[in-house]
Structures are given as structure tokens and as C-alpha cells.
From TrEMBL:
This is Mutator-like transposase domain-containing protein. Residues 1-34 are annotated as: Disordered. Pfam families: Mutator. Residues 75-321 form the Mutator-like transposase domain. Residues 21-34 have a biased composition (Basic and acidic residues).
Length: 327
């Protein structure tokens, strides 16, 4: 039989009664809800008791408990004023709603739904008011805009949340940004390909002959030491000499996180969109992308006559002999 002196557990380990009591006191002190007036107040505050409301925007007939989330009046929000102004009427009696009557808030990334109570004594209905618009019916536009801005700025979810936290704006969950990024990827690729098609036509119109002249180079997401190139991804672009626009691009990937996860667990891989399109070395990506871009241009009716590139012997040897190589 265990000694009563060590009959308590703290963080999963046996601890003395004195240490257990001390841990209980610290938990109670940390869980006290206090109201602070600082600008950046991330502590807990007193909230109202749960209010049951029928949330028609979530699921029909689903009851949602309000008052259990963080207080709505903490921090700052990104609000579309036009959307908010058109939604500030009671869903039941059409009376004007006031922001001071907000009961709770449910945050969806950078946007949120406000639960506002009607002031009419005969109504007192709680309306669901969005802070932004939803164009496609799937998600708030602001969340897609944040994802596009993240990609355009070359940042990641942690950088975005560091910026938002510094502005005292509730951060966006990294999984939300990754989900939006996957939804936007096909659209971005389609827009990039259309832009390249237009640039090809402009470049040929500006050319003095019937052949294109461009500058080619490749890059990797991981720096090479000169002796070791082990980046999992690589990219390349071909820029027209006359217009300065990208006329063709390509990407190589030899790693898939989903495949690696199930391989590590020795489990069969589920059906998914695998991005792996290269199995060779990282250094071998550059000549392969150069040949692929020139071949696609040829299929579209464009011939590359002169190519400006760096001193890479492998790429030069793989290119067609008809192309004039310049360094």
C-alpha cells in the first residue's frame, strides 16, 4: 500500500501532500477571472452565463451556448463596415441593433459572427451578425485575402500571427491558412499560366525575328553549399528579354508530407493529391525544368532562339543544339 504522504499526483507524477496543496493553490490563483483595463489584455474576464440560441448559420436546429468563449470586447477586429451596417437589424422584428448589446462572438479566422440581442422588450431575439462578406458561400473573403497576402509577401502562418498579435488582433489558426492555401493553389496556378500565355504573345510581337530570346535561371528553397544540394523543391522561370515578363515557369517537388507520414507509420497511403513530380537529385531539377519549358513553348508554336543563363554545363548540354547559349 502506497504511503499517504505520496498519495497525490502532480503532472502525472506522485507528489507529497504539501506539494499537491501548493499546486492546487497555484491553479486556483491562475484560474481567477479578473478584469483588466490594459490595451493588450489577454487574461480572462468575467463573462455572462450560457445563453442558449438557435444558430441558423451553423446547422438547422443546432443549439449553441453563448458566453463560454473569450470576451468579445477584448482586442481589435477587422470589420467590413458596409456588411456590418446592412446587418444591424433584428432578424425577427427588424428593429435597430446596437453593438453595446453584443452577447458573444464566434471567431472564424479574421472574421466573426456577433450575437446581438434585440432591445425590444417584446422581442429580445438574438441575431447573428457577420463582420465580413462570404462571396462563394464557403468562407469569409477576408480569410482568403489574408492567405493571398501571405503568399504574395513570402510569409508563413507564424509570421502572419506574429503581426496580428502585435496589432492585438486575434490570430488565425495555421490550419485555416493552410486549408485556404490549398483551395487557392489551383486558381493561382491557372492565373499564372494565363499570364505567361499573354507574355509569350507580347514577347513575340516585340521580337525582331520569329524566335524568342529569354533569360533562364532556377532556384531552390534550401541553400546549397556548392557541394551538397538536397532541397526538396525547386523552381525556374524564363523571362523575355524585350518585355521583362515571365513567359514560362516550372516547379519540381520530390517530397509529399502526406506520403511521408504514412510511410513512417507503415500504413497504406490514402487517396490524395500528391505533389511529387521529381525523383532525381536536386541539382538535376534545373536542366529538366529548362528542357520542359522549351518543349512546352514549342508545343504552343514558339521557338526559343537565344537563351541567357548561368555557367551550368549540365543545363547547356541538355538544351537543343539549335539554341544559342549566352552567359
Amino acid at each position: 500500500m502506497a504511503d499517504d504522504k505520496y498519495s497525490q499526483r502532480v503532472r502525472g507524477k506522485m507528489a507529497s501532500t504539501g506539494r499537491s496543496k501548493k499546486a492546487d493553490r497555484m491553479r486556483k490563483m491562475n484560474s481567477k477571472e479578473t478584469l483588466r483595463g490594459e490595451d493588450h489584455d489577454y487574461g480572462a474576464v468575467f463573462v455572462e452565463g450560457p445563453i442558449s440560441v438557435n444558430a441558423t448559420d451553423l446547422e438547422v436546429g443546432e443549439n449553441v451556448e453563448l458566453g463560454s468563449s473569450k470576451p468579445w470586447f477584448q482586442g481589435r477586429r477587422v470589420v467590413e463596415l458596409d456588411v456590418l451596417a446592412r446587418s444591424m437589424n433584428c432578424e425577427k422584428c427588424s428593429s435597430w441593433l446596437r453593438l453595446s448589446d453584443i452577447k458573444d462572438e464566434v471567431i472564424y479566422g479574421m472574421a466573426s459572427f456577433l450575437y446581438i440581442s434585440c432591445r425590444s422588450s417584446a422581442c429580445q431575439h438574438i441575431s447573428l451578425v457577420p463582420t465580413g462578406k462570404k462571396s462563394n458561400g464557403k468562407g469569409f473573403d477576408i480569410n482568403y485575402k489574408v492567405c493571398l497576402a501571405m503568399i504574395n509577401a513570402g510569409m508563413g502562418p507564424s509570421h502572419v500571427n506574429n503581426f496580428l498579435t502585435g496589432c492585438n488582433i486575434p490570430p488565425v489558426d495555421a490550419s485555416t491558412l493552410r486549408k485556404k492555401q490549398k483551395e487557392l493553389a489551383p486558381v493561382i496556378i491557372e492565373a499564372a499560366e494565363a499570364s505567361c500565355k499573354e507574355a509569350q504573345r507580347e514577347e513575340l510581337e516585340c521580337s525582331e525575328c520569329s524566335e524568342l530570346e529569354g533569360s533562364f535561371d532556377a532556384g531552390w528553397q534550401k541553400r546549397g553549399s556548392g557541394w551538397s544540394y538536397n532541397s526538396h523543391t525547386g523552381h525556374a522561370s524564363l523571362i523575355g528579354i524585350n518585355t521583362g515578363k515571365v513567359v514560362e515557369f516550372d516547379v519540381r517537388t520530390r517530397n509529399c508530407s502526406i506520403c511521408q507520414y504514412y510511410i513512417g507509420k507503415n500504413e497504406p497511403k490514402p487517396p490524395h493529391e500528391c505533389n511529387v513530380n521529381w525523383t532525381g537529385s536536386s541539382k538535376g531539377m534545373e536542366p529538366d525544368m529548362a528542357c520542359s519549358m522549351i518543349q512546352r513553348l514549342a508545343e504552343d508554336g514558339y521557338t526559343v532562339g537565344t537563351l541567357h543563363a548561368d555557367n551550368d554545363a549540365t543545363t547547356q548540354s541538355r538544351l537543343p543544339r539549335s539554341i544559342i547559349k549566352k552567359r
